[in-house]
Amino acid sequence: MLAVPIATETVNRDSSQAPLPFIERLCFERSAVPEMVNNTKIFKMAFARVYPLYIAKVERKGRTRQEVDAVIHWLTGYDDESLERHISEQTDFETFFARAPRMNPNASKITGVICGHRIEEIEHTLMRQIRYLDKLVDELAKGRAMDKILRS
After folding, report:
1. Residue of 59, 88, 87, 60 whose CA lies nearest to 72
2. I need a labelling partner for 141 at 20 to 30 A (CA). Which of 39, 55, 60, 147 fits?
3. Is the pLDDT of residue 19 over 90?
4. Phi and psi dihedrals of 121, rounded to 5?
C-alpha cells in the first residue's frame, strides 16, 4: 500500500490501481485519514488549485465555465472581479468562504450525498460549505437545469 499526502497524484491504494482524478481523491482520502487532519489539508488548499478541475469536469459534460462561475456567485455572493482576485491570489478554501460577501440563505436546501457523506449531516460549517460547492458542480456536470441547481 502507498501512503502519500493529498498533494500528490496517488493515495492510500494498492499500487496496481490507476491514480484517481483529483476530486475523487479528496473523497477517497477523506475516508482514509482522520477527519480533522484531512479537513485541515482541504481548508488550507488553494481554491485556485481546485477551480480548474471544476471547470474541466463540467466542460467534459458540455457545460461552461460561466455556469460554474454562476453557481459560485449564487453560493458565495462573489462577483466576477472578486472571484478572479481570489483565484490569482491563491486564496485557500478557509479564507475564500470566510470572506464570502454573502452566503446564499438557500444553500441549506442543498442536500444529498457527496463523497459518501450526507451534506445536511456535516457538522463543521466550512466543510459543509465546501461540500455545497462540490454538490453544485456535480449537479451542473450531471446536466441538471440551472434553475434547479440554484434552488429557485
Report:
1. 87
2. 39
3. no
4. -100, -5
